[in-house]
Design goal:
By secondary structure, this protein is an alpha+beta fold. It has one domain. It has two helices and three strands; from the N terminus they run βββαα. A hairpin with a 5-residue loop joins β2 and β3. α1 crosses α2. The radius of gyration is 12 Å and the shape is globular. The two termini are 24 Å apart. The relative contact order is 0.17.
């Protein structure tokens, strides 16, 4: 699949909680631009709205801390290129 935001091809995934395939309702970020997505029932990306991200942040604060660090690193890399 391609990132709906930056259009880069996303060919891999990494689960930071446990090794497994993505399932509907899981969330991820684009490794190229940091956009946050939720997998729908067809395992396609839905770009997270601010409300969706807030809901995830409240439900999974520890995971979101890790994702925030990753997103910050992605943004730093983008800004230095």
């Amino acid at each position: 699949m391609n990132c709906p935001n930056c259009k880069n091809k996303l060919e891999a995934h990494e689960c930071i909680v446990e090794p497994r395939q993505p399932k509907p309702g899981d969330f991820t970020i684009c490794a190229y631009c940091g956009t946050m997505f939720i997998f729908d029932y067809s395992l396609q990306f839905i770009v997270c709205t601010k409300q969706m991200e807030l809901t995830i942040r409240l439900k999974y604060p520890e995971v979101m801390q890790i994702m925030d660090r990753i997103r910050f690193a992605i943004q730093e890399k983008i800004s230095t290129n």
